[in-house]
TrEMBL record:
Residues 6-165 form the Glycosyl transferase family domain. The lineage of its organism: unclassified sequences, metagenomes, ecological metagenomes. It comes from bioreactor metagenome. This is Glycosyl transferase family 25 domain-containing protein. It holds the Pfam family Glyco_transf_25. InterPro entries: Glyco_trans_25.
Length: 266
């Protein structure tokens, strides 16, 4: 089995991002795959063949992680900035059990069933394309990067150092962060700066490492596109009992969130 390669989710109109990556991202002998298919303009005329909104699928994928989404939202409020994630997620689980999924979603309408926006669908298809390439090329894992990542001075060295630990029994490592989410009390630090995260979940999908095993599970399940990419990935990690980890501090900077890039998610 080959060790790994890089996969860059690239929207072809992001010319400044492409130029930045070409000029600055040096990976020695590792292969870089540019995932440029499924741009929003390319899929616009075939949307009905690619995507059909299904409320039941939404409830399956988003409903199964609603307590995580609510727990994260509560944890970013000033009064809970130091509260362990596990406690907040447990409280959200109790809320859903006591009130029911549909009623709780009405209280948090951002999680109500809805159609995917075309940029969300495009990005989701790009990530799944990367998973297929990881499987087809028999890589042990893939390093997935969206094209808004920004390098730190020591990003490549830090990444090589992380890989050199040869961590056993893992499926997902978030290396870019985002959404204001960082490890907290009760999140075990397994090696310096790497924290075990339970229940397994994403922060964003800007930058992460994913195992061949988890890619195979996702592709074999072959669910229709349903929810934003980060939510779907959290669902898959829960469904397949993935071992998830977050880096803190991160190896990369999430360019869109830090306004180093203007988001084109519209």
């Amino acid at each position: 089995m080959n060790d790994y390669a890089f996969f860059i989710m690239h929207y072809k109109k992001n010319i400044d991002r492409r130029n930045y990556i070409f000029e600055n991202f040096v990976t020695d002998d590792k292969t870089i795959y540019w995932i440029t298919a499924f741009d929003r303009e390319e899929i616009a005329d075939s949307l009905d063949d690619i995507y059909q909104f299904n409320k039941d699928n939404w409830y399956e994928i988003v409903g199964k992680q609603l307590s995580i989404l609510i727990g994260h939202r509560l944890g970013l409020s000033p009064q809970h900035m130091d509260t362990p994630w596990s406690f907040l997620i447990h409280c959200a689980e109790d809320l859903v059990k006591q009130n029911g999924l549909h009623e709780v979603m009405q209280k948090f309408p951002q999680y109500m069933p809805r159609n995917l926006k075309i940029f969300e669908l495009s990005l989701l298809l790009k990530h799944r394309s990367a998973y297929r390439k990881i499987i087809a090329n028999n890589y042990k894992f893939g390093i997935i990067l969206e094209d808004d990542f920004i390098l730190k001075d020591d990003s490549i060295a830090a990444l090589n150092n992380l890989i050199s630990y040869n961590i056993a029994d893992w499926d997902f490592i978030d290396i870019a962060g985002g959404a204001g989410l960082t490890p907290r009390e009760q999140d075990q630090e397994v090696i310096p700066c790497l924290f075990s995260i339970q229940p397994p979940r994403t922060r964003t999908t800007c930058g992460y490492i994913i195992s061949n095993r988890l890619c195979r599970e996702i592709i074999n399940l072959n669910t229709p596109p349903t929810a934003p990419c980060d939510w779907e990935l959290t669902y898959f990690m829960q469904r397949f009992n993935a071992k998830a980890f977050w880096l803190n501090p991160t190896i990369l900077i999430h360019g869109s969130e830090t306004e180093l890039y203007q988001s084109n998610n519209n």
